[in-house]
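Fe-S cluster assembly ATPase SufC, Microvirga tunisiensis. Tokens?
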Amino acid sequence: MLEIKNLVVQIEDKRILNGLNLTVHKGEVAAIMGPNGSGKSTLSYVIAGKEDYEVLDGEILLDGQNLLELEPDQRAAAGVFLAFQYPLEIPGVASMTFLKATLNAQRKARGEAELTTPDFIKRVNAVAQQLEIPKDMLKRALNVGFSGGEKKRMEILQMALLQPSFCILDETDSGLDIDALRIVSEGVNALRSADRAFLVITHYQRLLNHIVPDTVHVMHSGRIVKSGGKELALELEANGYADYRESEAA
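Tokens:
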């Protein structure tokens, strides 16, 4: 599914990723944990194609295709989806208008027919009900005035509609209360399948209690420094990252 080889990235002459290697298989939920400044969000942005990051070396292969050769919209059409830590508010753009335009653009890029308005509304309402998104929320401008939980639910709604093959969740649990965390996690778990992979970036074990990972990777100083099973997240919750900082200092 996704294979990252020797990825070296900088921004404004500051090196962020230092020869990072990572493999995520089809059907796998891989979690990345690490201290602030380790490069977790940078990794998600570079995979999705955010501007301003300079890739000095390496490859990001999705099903054998090098994403670094594609524009962001082409990466999205290829199956990449990024749920942001802080979703942007877009005044003047109705949520339903945005959702329909995005979904039909993806379908067109994949050679599929655009959805009719009745079919689109039926799909949105079905997913919105599952995520406990009220209809009046769908009538508002995208993310404008939304709470943190509402913004995250809106992103999971987008993900459910687009059906991407590789989903990146960048600290999706940030700003969520217990109920919102449960709802968002249930939405993510409903999308787990043998043909879809997830990269879940988080600081805390609490998210991984709801979205149980197959593998956990520890990121430090722009590299993956340790990998293991879900029990590794419990170890990090108990001990923190002191061991990794000490090994770097040594």
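The chain has one domain: 2-93+164-249.
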